[in-house]
Write a structure and sequence with these properties.
Oligomer: single chain
Number of strands: 0
Number of helices: 7
Strand content: under 5%
Helix content: over 70%
Length: 257
């Protein structure tokens, strides 16, 4: 059970006045909390097993069978930088597309920017989906990561070369048509570069994702264990009060004495 659900169940249990219904709810919640704890323990083991398996694939050597999920801070920072680079490429593509539409086709700047946003985001996520499907070697993710970075660097070099005619076209009107062609090709390549960088960041950040998942499972299991302990304590108090209540009903004069 999640934290919000536990709070809700506690409130319902506290507000319930009928003793029979309260006992039934208490029993039901105990069973549910116990099952959740067992289930989450299994999820923790699976998460740790996945971490060891992924580390073995990444390092191409056997991992420690007792190792628990953790993450490399440098790798996480590297993945962040790759994401920053990817979104920077998207912004440059939007500006480039808007400039081409506004100067070559005489579109209003607002429409040009909106068209640029649509084209940049659409192409980026199309490339990202295709790259993730065809270029990732799940048995050797480290090699895939290096390949993605190399292709990104090649793409950036090509874009830099193709942007030269676009810059020259500002001073030479005769080069306007060639600038439109090279600028359009640059926009497509920038989409591919941003997609490559996003996929590379996802591959590089595998440890951090599993570590966050592991911490989330630990927190949820701790909450369920605490809730189960509270329910068992409430049940023990109810059992202790029950004989005194029954005795008072059987012999009502005993309380007068």
């Amino acid at each position: 059970m999640k934290k919000k659900e536990i709070k809700k169940q506690k409130r319902e249990l506290k507000e319930m006045g009928d003793l029979t219904q309260r006992e039934q709810l208490l029993t039901s919640l105990k069973r549910k909390a116990h099952d959740n704890v067992i289930f989450l323990q299994g999820q923790l083991e699976n998460c740790a097993k996945t971490h060891r398996l992924e580390k073995q694939k990444w390092e191409q050597k056997p991992s420690d069978p007792e190792e628990l999920p953790s993450f490399d801070v440098d790798a996480h920072c590297e993945a962040k930088l790759l994401r920053v680079g990817a979104w920077s490429a998207v912004v440059i593509e939007i500006l480039l597309s808007a400039y081409l539409f506004a100067t070559s086709l005489a579109f209003p700047w607002m429409i040009s920017v909106l068209v640029g946003v649509f084209i940049a985001l659409g192409l980026t996520f199309i490339y990202k989906a295709g790259i993730g499907h065809y270029l990732i070697d799940h048995e050797n993710p480290k090699r895939s990561y290096r390949r993605l970075k190399t292709l990104s660097l090649i793409g950036l070099i090509i874009v830099t070369i193709l942007l030269i005619p676009v810059i020259v076209a500002r001073t030479l009107p005769q080069a306007a048509h060639f600038a439109w062609l090279s600028g359009g090709i640059s926009a497509f390549i920038l989409s591919a570069v941003s997609g490559l960088l996003l996929v590379a960041a996802h591959v590089r950040d595998w440890q951090y994702r599993l570590f966050c998942q592991y911490l989330s499972l630990i927190e949820e299991m701790s909450e369920n264990q605490s809730f189960l302990e509270e329910l068992e304590k409430a049940n023990a108090e109810r059992v202790l009060r029950t004989p005194a209540t029954v005795s008072a009903k059987v012999n009502p004069t005993s309380s007068i004495k």
